[in-house]
Amino acid sequence: MPSFDDLTLCLAIDRLTQADSTHYAIWVLESPFPGGYAHHDRLWDSQMAQIWESWQQFFSLRGLPQVPHVPSAYVPQFHLDDLLDRVAPAAEAGGYTGRLMQGLGVSLWEWLFDGPIRQTLERSLGMAIGQNRPLKLRLEVRPPELISLPWEIMQPQPGCPALSLGPQVLFSRTASTVEPLPEAELDISLRILLVLGQDDPGITAGDTEQVLQLPQEAEALKQLLELSASRLSYQGASPVVCQVQTLLEPDAKTLLKALETGYFNVFFYAGHGVPAPDGGMLFLRQGGNLTGTELAQGLAHNGIRLAVFNTCWGAQPDLQQQEVIPRSSLAEVLLHHGVPAVLAMRDSIADEEALSFIQVLARGLAERQPVAQAVALARQHLLTAYRFNHPAWTLPVLYQHPQFEGHLLREAALAVTQLPGQDLRMTQSVVLRCLATPTRLWRLYDGYLRVGRLPDNDLVILEPWVSGQHAEIFCRTQFENGTQETHYYLRDRSRYGSYYFDNHGWHHVHRAEVPLALGTAIRFGSPEGELMEFTLEGSPKSSPPC
């Protein structure tokens, strides 16, 4: 598996003894330096219990159990306002809810990073800063009663950003009892299977409004994901091809059949879901449900590297008689089955919040950011859009497999377009070649080639009739009935247009896109422009068209 030059600090929390629910052990599972493998014992006292209970009353939409219960005679009592005055002064913006958010965030940080654990964190951060690299901080929470806590809001002191907001720290949760990851090459494009399930189990399949709205929602989400990647081409970034295939209210058989093709690397689900003992329950369609355990098989064994769930409580374990069921959340179950990365919501999230988060997340992935970095930037966006004292930014929870390096896509220099359905190492690259000088050629990196007069294009043509951002050549893969086919296109964005030659002669295309076959001759901006050929690298030179 590819290895990236990152520093990793992995911590675990577990009960000190099974008989005592208030004493915990914290230790270092992985450290960036040999002396960092520390161990520390912590008591969950009445201060932590009260501030967590108060936080739930203001921010949690689902009744959660006390985590854990501390008898009043066991530790001295105190006033919550006194604690908030200490960790979040009243002068801080956001009123009481802002103080409460900061209060729990600072308290969780101080509880986790205490004694030798804090020393390991500080030295790890110092190494990361000195080497100008991010620190990957992964937290394994083993006691089921502590999983519901919003560890993502931890901050060292008021006014400092939460650790999950990056960029110096890339925070995620993890687990150790997981299926091993198979060897896998990094991808050159995002291939997303977008599944829209039943939005509300109370709406029947025959409801006209539901039938009309679901395709519109699917198309809107598809465009949102694709445009988040394609917009990079206008900002000097090396763009990534993002292909989205949608399934609307599929039955379980149809969904699993699509996954079994092995074509997709990102799975995205939007719809209704609830906590349940077997990894939650997803409502695909009227009368058709799917448990997390059933879905895990299709995701883990068919190339899915990242699973994203825009559904309520995907990161929340189930309860039985107010007791948390271990390893019952959807995110945990998928990780235990070997899915490299899972992003789910800790509580209920509004549609506009989720869409705003998804847009920034998709853009980050298209920029080849590590998954944790893309999540941090999207979380930052939620905080900015909905304010610090709003719970939206605290809801996304990222789990990453301990063997997962955090990257989905290859570096730009390694992402060369390959022929559809074939191995990169055994095929020729698709190129645009100058017919007058065949040694001059331009490869389609990430399935994309930008042509124009400005220097940030992949192919720069300094001719007066060529516009600054003149045209693009790109590939698009369509997935239908279990098969995939990739097609190439020429998209003109110029003032004067482009010209291509087929069996019927030269054709003019202006501010439109046309299919592009291998062997097609192209001129940009003028019939007198430099003659190019869209072909395979190493193929014989074609005769210039008449």
Automatic annotation (TrEMBL):
One matching Pfam family: FHA
Residues covered by the FHA domain: 449-499
Coiled coil: none
Record-linked Gene3D superfamilies: 2.60.200.20
InterPro entries: CHAT_dom, FHA_dom, SMAD_FHA_dom_sf
Matching PROSITE patterns: FHA_DOMAIN (PS50006)
Name of this chain's protein: CHAT domain-containing protein
Source organism: Leptolyngbya subtilissima DQ-A4
Lineage of origin: Bacteria, Bacillati, Cyanobacteriota, Cyanophyceae, Leptolyngbyales
